[in-house]
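Team,

Forwarding the record for the chain on the shared tracking sheet. I've put the sequence and predicted structure together so nobody has to dig through attachments.
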Amino acid sequence: MTDINVGRFGIWRPAAGLDAELAANAEALGYGTVWIGGSPDGELAIAERMLAATDRLVVATGIVNMWATPAEQVAASYHRLNDRHGGRFLLGVGIGHPEASSEYRSPYETIVGYLDRLDAEGVPVNGRVLAALGPKVLRLAAERAAGAHPYLVTPEHTRRAREELGIGPLLAPEQKVVLQSDATRARELGRANVADIYLKLRNYTANLKRLGWSDEDIADGGSDALIDAIIAHGAPGRAAARLTEHLDAGADHVAVQLLTPPGEDVLPGLRALAEALDLG
Protein backbone atom coordinates (compact mmCIF):
# COMPACT_ATOMS: atom_id res chain seq x y z
CA MET A 1 0.00 0.00 0.00
CA THR A 2 1.18 3.49 -0.77
CA ASP A 3 1.09 6.28 1.78
CA ILE A 4 0.15 8.71 -1.00
CA ASN A 5 -3.47 9.78 -0.60
CA VAL A 6 -4.94 9.18 -4.05
CA GLY A 7 -8.53 9.72 -2.88
CA ARG A 8 -11.48 7.53 -3.77
CA PHE A 9 -11.91 8.89 -7.30
CA GLY A 10 -9.61 10.36 -9.90
CA ILE A 11 -9.66 11.13 -13.58
CA TRP A 12 -7.82 9.28 -16.35
CA ARG A 13 -6.97 11.17 -19.54
CA PRO A 14 -4.45 10.70 -22.35
CA ALA A 15 -1.51 13.05 -21.97
CA ALA A 16 -2.65 15.01 -25.04
CA GLY A 17 -5.91 15.85 -23.25
CA LEU A 18 -4.31 17.14 -20.06
CA ASP A 19 -2.96 20.50 -18.99
CA ALA A 20 -2.34 22.49 -15.83
CA GLU A 21 -5.76 24.18 -15.98
CA LEU A 22 -7.63 20.88 -16.10
CA ALA A 23 -5.56 19.59 -13.19
CA ALA A 24 -6.42 22.66 -11.11
CA ASN A 25 -10.10 22.24 -11.95
CA ALA A 26 -10.01 18.53 -11.07
CA GLU A 27 -8.51 19.38 -7.69
CA ALA A 28 -11.17 22.03 -7.07
CA LEU A 29 -13.93 19.53 -7.92
CA GLY A 30 -12.60 17.08 -5.33
CA TYR A 31 -10.90 14.45 -7.47
CA GLY A 32 -7.89 13.03 -5.71
CA THR A 33 -5.70 12.04 -8.63
CA VAL A 34 -5.13 12.73 -12.30
CA TRP A 35 -3.82 9.71 -14.22
CA ILE A 36 -1.72 10.45 -17.30
CA GLY A 37 -2.70 7.87 -19.89
CA GLY A 38 -1.48 7.03 -23.35
CA SER A 39 2.06 5.90 -22.44
CA PRO A 40 3.53 9.31 -21.54
CA ASP A 41 7.21 9.87 -22.27
CA GLY A 42 9.74 9.36 -19.52
CA GLU A 43 10.55 13.03 -19.03
CA LEU A 44 7.02 13.58 -17.63
CA ALA A 45 6.96 17.33 -18.26
CA ILE A 46 3.14 17.24 -18.24
CA ALA A 47 3.22 15.81 -14.72
CA GLU A 48 5.54 18.63 -13.65
CA ARG A 49 3.15 21.26 -14.98
CA MET A 50 0.10 19.73 -13.32
CA LEU A 51 1.83 19.32 -9.98
CA ALA A 52 3.04 22.92 -10.09
CA ALA A 53 -0.51 24.13 -10.71
CA THR A 54 -2.03 22.28 -7.74
CA ASP A 55 -1.60 21.95 -3.99
CA ARG A 56 -3.04 18.57 -3.00
CA LEU A 57 -3.73 16.69 -6.21
CA VAL A 58 -1.79 13.48 -6.84
CA VAL A 59 -0.50 12.98 -10.37
CA ALA A 60 0.02 9.38 -11.50
CA THR A 61 1.06 7.72 -14.73
CA GLY A 62 -1.28 5.18 -16.23
CA ILE A 63 1.12 3.92 -17.48
CA VAL A 64 4.74 4.52 -18.48
CA ASN A 65 5.43 1.80 -21.03
CA MET A 66 8.37 -0.41 -20.11
CA TRP A 67 9.26 -0.94 -23.78
CA ALA A 68 9.26 2.76 -24.64
CA THR A 69 11.02 4.26 -21.61
CA PRO A 70 14.20 3.03 -19.91
CA ALA A 71 13.78 2.47 -16.19
CA GLU A 72 16.71 4.78 -15.48
CA GLN A 73 15.04 7.69 -17.31
CA VAL A 74 11.71 7.39 -15.56
CA ALA A 75 13.46 6.88 -12.21
CA ALA A 76 15.21 10.23 -12.67
CA SER A 77 11.85 11.84 -13.41
CA TYR A 78 10.32 10.16 -10.36
CA HIS A 79 12.97 11.59 -8.06
CA ARG A 80 12.70 15.06 -9.62
CA LEU A 81 8.93 15.19 -9.21
CA ASN A 82 8.92 13.65 -5.76
CA ASP A 83 11.59 16.05 -4.50
CA ARG A 84 9.83 19.13 -5.86
CA HIS A 85 6.25 18.29 -5.03
CA GLY A 86 6.12 16.63 -1.64
CA GLY A 87 5.27 13.04 -2.46
CA ARG A 88 2.32 13.80 -4.76
CA PHE A 89 3.59 11.75 -7.68
CA LEU A 90 2.76 8.06 -8.15
CA LEU A 91 4.61 6.13 -10.84
CA GLY A 92 2.50 3.65 -12.78
CA VAL A 93 4.44 1.32 -15.07
CA GLY A 94 3.39 -1.51 -17.32
CA ILE A 95 4.37 -3.87 -20.09
CA GLY A 96 2.18 -2.44 -22.83
CA HIS A 97 0.94 -4.64 -25.68
CA PRO A 98 2.60 -7.44 -27.67
CA GLU A 99 1.28 -5.85 -30.87
CA ALA A 100 3.14 -2.59 -30.15
CA SER A 101 6.72 -3.87 -30.16
CA SER A 102 8.66 -6.06 -32.56
CA GLU A 103 11.04 -6.80 -29.66
CA TYR A 104 8.34 -8.03 -27.29
CA ARG A 105 9.76 -10.75 -25.07
CA SER A 106 8.41 -12.65 -22.07
CA PRO A 107 6.08 -10.13 -20.39
CA TYR A 108 6.61 -11.43 -16.88
CA GLU A 109 10.39 -11.56 -17.12
CA THR A 110 10.45 -8.07 -18.63
CA ILE A 111 8.33 -6.66 -15.81
CA VAL A 112 10.52 -8.26 -13.14
CA GLY A 113 13.67 -6.97 -14.80
CA TYR A 114 12.25 -3.47 -15.07
CA LEU A 115 11.24 -3.45 -11.41
CA ASP A 116 14.74 -4.63 -10.51
CA ARG A 117 16.16 -1.63 -12.36
CA LEU A 118 13.74 0.74 -10.59
CA ASP A 119 14.93 -0.76 -7.30
CA ALA A 120 18.53 -0.11 -8.29
CA GLU A 121 17.65 3.52 -9.05
CA GLY A 122 16.03 4.03 -5.66
CA VAL A 123 12.37 4.18 -6.71
CA PRO A 124 10.56 2.89 -3.60
CA VAL A 125 8.05 0.08 -3.78
CA ASN A 126 5.38 2.28 -2.18
CA GLY A 127 5.91 4.96 -4.83
CA ARG A 128 4.92 2.83 -7.81
CA VAL A 129 1.99 0.77 -9.08
CA LEU A 130 1.86 -1.86 -11.76
CA ALA A 131 -0.53 -2.30 -14.66
CA ALA A 132 -1.97 -5.74 -13.98
CA LEU A 133 -4.84 -7.83 -15.29
CA GLY A 134 -4.10 -11.53 -14.79
CA PRO A 135 -3.47 -13.34 -11.50
CA LYS A 136 0.29 -13.74 -11.89
CA VAL A 137 0.98 -10.04 -12.50
CA LEU A 138 -1.53 -9.00 -9.85
CA ARG A 139 0.41 -11.06 -7.32
CA LEU A 140 3.61 -9.44 -8.53
CA ALA A 141 2.00 -6.01 -8.03
CA ALA A 142 1.34 -6.94 -4.42
CA GLU A 143 4.92 -8.11 -3.89
CA ARG A 144 6.94 -5.56 -5.87
CA ALA A 145 4.76 -2.43 -5.97
CA ALA A 146 2.25 -0.50 -3.90
CA GLY A 147 -0.53 -2.18 -5.83
CA ALA A 148 -2.24 -2.47 -9.20
CA HIS A 149 -3.80 -0.20 -11.79
CA PRO A 150 -5.96 -2.43 -14.04
CA TYR A 151 -7.38 -1.00 -17.28
CA LEU A 152 -10.57 -1.87 -19.21
CA VAL A 153 -12.09 -3.88 -16.39
CA THR A 154 -15.41 -4.49 -14.69
CA PRO A 155 -16.39 -4.60 -11.01
CA GLU A 156 -16.19 -8.40 -11.26
CA HIS A 157 -12.55 -8.12 -12.27
CA THR A 158 -12.02 -5.77 -9.32
CA ARG A 159 -13.46 -8.41 -6.98
CA ARG A 160 -11.12 -11.07 -8.37
CA ALA A 161 -8.16 -8.68 -8.33
CA ARG A 162 -8.70 -7.92 -4.65
CA GLU A 163 -8.65 -11.64 -3.91
CA GLU A 164 -5.30 -11.97 -5.68
CA LEU A 165 -3.79 -8.83 -4.11
CA GLY A 166 -5.01 -9.55 -0.60
CA ILE A 167 -5.69 -6.87 1.96
CA GLY A 168 -3.40 -3.85 1.86
CA PRO A 169 -2.11 -3.24 -1.69
CA LEU A 170 -3.67 -0.36 -3.58
CA LEU A 171 -6.25 -1.37 -6.18
CA ALA A 172 -7.05 1.48 -8.58
CA PRO A 173 -8.99 0.30 -11.65
CA GLU A 174 -9.78 2.52 -14.62
CA GLN A 175 -13.44 2.80 -15.61
CA LYS A 176 -14.79 4.38 -18.79
CA VAL A 177 -17.91 6.55 -18.46
CA VAL A 178 -20.32 8.06 -20.96
CA LEU A 179 -22.77 10.58 -19.49
CA GLN A 180 -25.57 9.84 -21.92
CA SER A 181 -29.01 8.51 -20.95
CA ASP A 182 -29.78 7.24 -24.45
CA ALA A 183 -28.26 3.76 -24.34
CA THR A 184 -27.90 3.48 -28.12
CA ARG A 185 -25.98 6.75 -28.38
CA ALA A 186 -23.90 5.91 -25.31
CA ARG A 187 -22.91 2.53 -26.74
CA GLU A 188 -22.05 4.14 -30.07
CA LEU A 189 -19.62 6.54 -28.41
CA GLY A 190 -18.23 3.89 -26.09
CA ARG A 191 -17.78 1.33 -28.85
CA ALA A 192 -15.91 3.88 -30.99
CA ASN A 193 -13.37 4.20 -28.17
CA VAL A 194 -12.71 0.48 -27.65
CA ALA A 195 -13.59 -1.52 -30.76
CA ASP A 196 -10.62 -0.80 -33.00
CA ILE A 197 -8.06 -0.60 -30.21
CA TYR A 198 -8.58 -2.55 -27.03
CA LEU A 199 -10.88 -5.28 -28.35
CA LYS A 200 -8.14 -6.22 -30.80
CA LEU A 201 -5.33 -6.46 -28.22
CA ARG A 202 -4.84 -9.94 -26.86
CA ASN A 203 -3.97 -9.00 -23.28
CA TYR A 204 -7.36 -7.29 -22.93
CA THR A 205 -9.32 -9.90 -24.85
CA ALA A 206 -7.69 -12.68 -22.80
CA ASN A 207 -8.70 -10.89 -19.63
CA LEU A 208 -12.28 -10.49 -20.82
CA LYS A 209 -12.41 -14.20 -21.62
CA ARG A 210 -11.20 -15.01 -18.10
CA LEU A 211 -14.22 -13.05 -16.91
CA GLY A 212 -16.53 -15.23 -18.98
CA TRP A 213 -17.00 -13.18 -22.16
CA SER A 214 -17.03 -15.15 -25.40
CA ASP A 215 -15.35 -14.60 -28.77
CA GLU A 216 -18.77 -13.60 -30.08
CA ASP A 217 -19.11 -10.93 -27.38
CA ILE A 218 -15.71 -9.49 -28.30
CA ALA A 219 -16.10 -9.65 -32.10
CA ASP A 220 -17.45 -6.89 -34.35
CA GLY A 221 -16.87 -4.05 -31.91
CA GLY A 222 -18.28 -5.83 -28.88
CA SER A 223 -21.77 -7.01 -28.03
CA ASP A 224 -24.13 -4.57 -26.33
CA ALA A 225 -23.79 -6.58 -23.14
CA LEU A 226 -19.99 -6.32 -23.20
CA ILE A 227 -20.04 -2.60 -23.97
CA ASP A 228 -22.47 -2.06 -21.09
CA ALA A 229 -20.12 -3.99 -18.79
CA ILE A 230 -16.92 -2.13 -19.61
CA ILE A 231 -18.41 1.34 -20.12
CA ALA A 232 -20.64 2.86 -17.45
CA HIS A 233 -23.27 5.02 -19.07
CA GLY A 234 -26.37 6.97 -18.18
CA ALA A 235 -27.18 10.06 -16.18
CA PRO A 236 -24.52 11.18 -13.65
CA GLY A 237 -26.24 9.43 -10.76
CA ARG A 238 -26.42 6.12 -12.57
CA ALA A 239 -22.81 6.37 -13.73
CA ALA A 240 -21.72 7.23 -10.19
CA ALA A 241 -23.47 4.11 -8.89
CA ARG A 242 -21.50 1.99 -11.37
CA LEU A 243 -18.24 3.59 -10.25
CA THR A 244 -19.10 2.87 -6.64
CA GLU A 245 -19.54 -0.82 -7.52
CA HIS A 246 -15.75 -0.99 -7.89
CA LEU A 247 -15.31 0.31 -4.34
CA ASP A 248 -17.84 -2.22 -3.08
CA ALA A 249 -15.89 -4.96 -4.91
CA GLY A 250 -12.63 -4.06 -3.17
CA ALA A 251 -11.11 -1.10 -5.03
CA ASP A 252 -9.49 1.70 -3.04
CA HIS A 253 -9.70 4.21 -5.87
CA VAL A 254 -11.39 4.44 -9.28
CA ALA A 255 -9.74 6.27 -12.19
CA VAL A 256 -12.61 7.70 -14.25
CA GLN A 257 -12.10 8.03 -17.99
CA LEU A 258 -14.93 10.27 -19.18
CA LEU A 259 -15.61 9.73 -22.87
CA THR A 260 -17.07 12.66 -24.80
CA PRO A 261 -17.72 13.39 -28.46
CA PRO A 262 -14.68 14.79 -30.30
CA GLY A 263 -14.05 18.43 -29.44
CA GLU A 264 -16.45 18.52 -26.48
CA ASP A 265 -15.16 20.09 -23.26
CA VAL A 266 -14.77 17.38 -20.65
CA LEU A 267 -15.04 19.72 -17.65
CA PRO A 268 -18.87 20.00 -17.45
CA GLY A 269 -19.15 16.22 -17.37
CA LEU A 270 -16.46 15.92 -14.72
CA ARG A 271 -18.29 18.53 -12.66
CA ALA A 272 -21.64 16.70 -12.96
CA LEU A 273 -20.02 13.41 -12.02
CA ALA A 274 -18.23 14.99 -9.04
CA GLU A 275 -21.56 16.25 -7.77
CA ALA A 276 -23.15 12.83 -8.18
CA LEU A 277 -20.21 11.25 -6.34
CA ASP A 278 -20.43 13.93 -3.62
CA LEU A 279 -16.75 14.85 -3.91
CA GLY A 280 -17.19 18.40 -2.67
